[in-house]
Amino acid sequence: MLLWLTDYLSEFIRAFSVFQYLTFRTMVSVMTALFTSLLIGPYVIAKLTDLQMGQTVREDGPQSHLSKAGTPTMGGALILIVILVTTLLWGDLTSRHIWVVLSVTAAFGVIGWADDYLKIARKNSAGLVARWKYFWQSLVGLSAAVFLFSAAELPAETALIVPFFKEVAIPLGTGFVLLSYLMIVGMSNAVNLTDGLDGLAILPTVMVGAALGLIAYVAGNTEFSAYLQIPYIPGAGELAVFCGALIGAGLGFLWFNTYPAQIFMGDVGALALGAALGVVAIIVRHEIVLLIMGGLFVLETASVIIQVASFSLTGKRIFRMAPIHHHFELKGWPEPKVIVRFWIVTLVLVTIGLSTLKLR
Fold first, then answer.
1. In the chain, N or C: fewer CB atoms in 10 Å?
2. Considering its fold, how many domains does the chain have in total?
3. If we measure between CA atoms, which residue out of 220, 279, 221 comes closest to residue 246?
4. Could you give the CA distance from residue 252 to residue 360 in angstroms, rounded to a whole number?
């Protein structure tokens, strides 16, 4: 919205023309989201506390977590509101990519909100019935996948790009819909599984989001995409503004979510942010790179799958507890040590993922 206003004002005051630059709007998006989060964060925490929106802790979890019961949850609503408002302010609202990402993020946020609300209302950690949760996630994920497939204008927009190779692009056809669905729903649940310690999920999400924002910028630029030999996706660069909003909102939330947390993200934030990462990666055609950069999320999900499969087949557990961050807690690692070490792992993986842009 403000993009239109600044465009109009630039006819009279030349300085406003700077807002037409994508890089500038991305930086402004980061700062807008960050300062808005820091400004309204204390009010949101106080309001959630007054409404008794306290966290319900698993009884079978680490004993150190019992003290966290009652800490305000559903703080992800703060992240989502800031991201949506900031993107609407500084994004190009004629971009279909912007509307797809915003729609999926908001829809998964609603699903997460319902899950969080039921946990609080029922005073247990069960939340939304699994089959219904998966049904609504699948409905939104498939809808987004079908739309992106039908709206594709270039063959590259539906081809699987393999990193480290210059000209390997596998035409997917309708298989694009299946891959996109799996990426959206899979990443959504992967981030949700990771969100088990103070600040554990939000900073890796910010780091991966920042990297995807950079990829979106170069993928939407004819010169940079040609130089790096990655597919040119018209209009994809505008997603850098969305990723900028995610960075600012995420860092602002981390200010209150860092150990010991004053507020928890809840499913309303985790499900939405994971889905957002998946959609951005799909649009810029870097799904495999997302799996590399988001290796922490993949590891957390894999640990749950392995644990369940092992116990079902042999009656034995591979890990002391899944997801894997709880395994290290039960081994005696203090919570801050687990968090920071997992952050370091993500930083390394994001660096590896970004290196694929050049190593082709």
1. N
2. 1
3. 279
4. 36
- Provide the residue type at 105 as one letter: T
Q: Residue 43: inside a domain, yes or no?
A: yes
User: Would you list the DSSP string of 220-288?
Assistant: T-HHHHHHHT----TTGGGHHHHHHHHHHHHHHHHHHHSSSPSS--HHHHHHHHHHHHHHHHHHTT-HH
For 266, half-sphere exposure in the C-beta direction (CA atoms, 13 angstrom radius) is 35
| CB-CB contact of 219 with 231 (8 Å) | yes
Query: Is 6 contained in some domain?
Result: no
360 part of a folded domain:
no
SS3 state of residue 125 = coil
In angstroms, the CA 290 to CA 12 distance is: 43
List the pLDDT tens digit at each of the 360 positions of the chain: 777 777 667 777 877 788 788 999 999 999 999 999 999 999 999 988 887 665 665 555 555 554 556 688 889 999 999 999 999 999 999 999 999 999 999 999 999 999 998 888 776 666 788 899 999 999 999 999 999 999 999 999 999 998 887 777 889 999 999 999 999 999 999 999 999 899 999 999 999 999 999 999 999 999 999 998 898 999 999 999 999 999 999 999 999 999 999 999 999 999 999 999 999 999 999 999 999 999 999 999 999 999 999 999 998 999 999 999 999 999 999 999 999 999 999 999 999 999 998 876
Closest by CA position to 282, among listed 130, 148, 190 = 148
Phi/psi at 169 (nearest 5 deg)? -135, 110
From first CA to last CA, the distance across the chain in angstroms is 39
Range of the domain at 181: 22-355
3-state secondary structure of 307: helix
Q: Is the peptide bond between 260 and the residue preceding it cis, with omega within 30 degrees of 0?
A: yes
DSSP assignment of 24-65: HHHHHHHHHHHHHHHHHHHHHHHHHHHTT-BPPPPTTS-GGG
**Cut 0.70: pTM above it:** yes
Classified as helix, coil or strand, 66 is: helix
